[in-house]
Automatic annotation (TrEMBL):
<feature type="binding site">
    <location>
        <begin position="128"/>
        <end position="130"/>
    </location>
    <ligand>
        <name>NAD(+)</name>
    </ligand>
</feature>
<dbReference type="Pfam" id="PF02866">
    <property type="entry name" value="Ldh_1_C"/>
</dbReference>
<dbReference type="InterPro" id="IPR001557">
    <property type="entry name" value="L-lactate/malate_DH"/>
</dbReference>
<comment type="similarity">
    <text>Belongs to the LDH/MDH superfamily. LDH family.</text>
</comment>
<dbReference type="InterPro" id="IPR018177">
    <property type="entry name" value="L-lactate_DH_AS"/>
</dbReference>
<dbReference type="GO" id="GO:0006089">
    <property type="term" value="P:lactate metabolic process"/>
</dbReference>
<dbReference type="InterPro" id="IPR015955">
    <property type="entry name" value="Lactate_DH/Glyco_Ohase_4_C"/>
</dbReference>
<feature type="domain" description="Lactate/malate dehydrogenase C-terminal">
    <location>
        <begin position="155"/>
        <end position="258"/>
    </location>
</feature>
<feature type="binding site">
    <location>
        <position position="105"/>
    </location>
    <ligand>
        <name>NAD(+)</name>
    </ligand>
</feature>
<keyword id="KW-0520">NAD</keyword>
<feature type="active site" description="Proton acceptor">
    <location>
        <position position="185"/>
    </location>
</feature>
<comment type="pathway">
    <text>Fermentation; pyruvate fermentation to lactate; (S)-lactate from pyruvate: step 1/1.</text>
</comment>
<feature type="binding site">
    <location>
        <position position="44"/>
    </location>
    <ligand>
        <name>NAD(+)</name>
    </ligand>
</feature>
<dbReference type="GO" id="GO:0004459">
    <property type="term" value="F:L-lactate dehydrogenase (NAD+) activity"/>
</dbReference>
<feature type="domain" description="Lactate/malate dehydrogenase N-terminal">
    <location>
        <begin position="14"/>
        <end position="152"/>
    </location>
</feature>
<dbReference type="Pfam" id="PF00056">
    <property type="entry name" value="Ldh_1_N"/>
</dbReference>
<dbReference type="InterPro" id="IPR036291">
    <property type="entry name" value="NAD(P)-bd_dom_sf"/>
</dbReference>
């Protein structure tokens, strides 16, 4: 049987993060602190901010171990990356939907994707910028790369939030609470109630109305909480970042370490197919 390979195994684990705003830096910090890479390239259009963030990380590199951290505005420095994470672009303001960002962020993709793809034609691209599902398609088209090389973060974050809310209500560790949110990231996402389980025990076996509007226990409101999560956090602190950084690092781990657990959690079916069928 041919071994499954997500990336070419030449020993390199270079990761490029384009867009070093709140989300990009949360991704970089999560990846570095878990020692998933020994070579990270940070890129942004804002050279001063880029220099500041790079220096700040470098000042702590002795706690990470042997790791090259480079900040650059020149796409040549991203060459031969194994994974490229795209977080550049505008984010939602309070009350604004993700879809409202589409025109501005398509323009950003036009600037970023062709040079990235030129220098790292074999990388796996993870699009995070919103509206993520639309921009993943745009990035794929702009890249000229095979579809399995361009994935989006999809509903990975939504599923993570779902697991948190399940855990919170059940009083059971979120690592033992499993559930998928599928479809489009955000407002129109869909909760897969039939699949929600705690350590493999489906909750629908315990409550046949689980997740339906007729359920006296009103579990379906958890999906509402998932959808409202970003709006709530943005209202409170202006942006979301940490949970996204953690979910993206789980995908990077899956790609670089060929561990499929996190990829299978990418509940957008097309993303799963793209991730696995290389
Ligand atoms: P931010 O404003 O903090 O950072 C955006 C960065 O992109 C800035 O540093 C900016 O200089 C840079 N940038 C803009 N245009 C660029 C270009 N052409 N080339 C290079 N860099 C460029 O925003 P943020 O809070 O980090 O959010 C980034 C994106 O991530 C937003 O679109 C946001 O909606 C999205 N997001 C997605 C998810 C998800 O689950 N998919 C979760 C949270 C946020």
């Amino acid at each position: 049987m041919k071994p499954l390979q997500l990336t070419e195994s030449d020993g390199s684990n270079k990761v490029t993060v384009v867009g070093i705003g709140q989300v990009g830096m949360a991704c970089a910090f999560s990846i570095l602190s878990q020692k998933l890479t020994t070579n990270i390239c940070l890129m942004d259009a804002n050279a001063d901010k880029l220099m500041g963030e790079t220096c700040d990380l470098l000042h702590g590199v002795s706690f990470i171990g042997d790791c090259k951290i480079k900040g650059s505005t020149d796409y040549k420095d991203s060459a031969n990356s194994k994974v490229c994470i795209i977080t550049a672009g505008v984010r939602q303001r309070e009350g604004e939907t993700r879809l409202a960002l589409v025109q501005r962020n398509v323009e950003v993709m036009r600037n970023i994707i062709p040079p990235l793809a030129k220098y790292s034609p074999k990388a796996i691209y993870i699009v995070v910028s919103n509206p993520v599902d639309v921009l993943t398609y745009v990035a794929w088209k702009l890249s000229g790369l095979p579809s399995e090389q361009v994935i989006g973060s999809g509903t990975n974050l939504d599923s993570s939030r779902f697991r948190h809310f399940l855990s919170n209500r059940l009083g059971i560790a979120s690592t033992d609470c499993h559930g998928w949110i599928i479809g489009e990231h955000g407002d129109s996402s869909v909760a897969v109630w039939s699949n929600v389980n705690v350590c493999g025990v489906p909750l629908i076996q315990l409550n046949s109305k689980f997740g339906t509007p007729d359920d006296a226990e009103k579990w379906h409101l958890l999906h509402h909480d998932v959808i409202q999560s970003a709006y709530k956090v943005i209202k409170l602190k202006g942006y979301t970042s940490w949970a996204t950084g953690l979910t993206i690092s789980a995908v990077v781990r899956a790609i670089l370490k060929t561990s499929f657990r996190a990829l299978i959690k990418l509940s957008n079916l097309r993303d799963i197919r793209r991730g696995l069928l290389v």
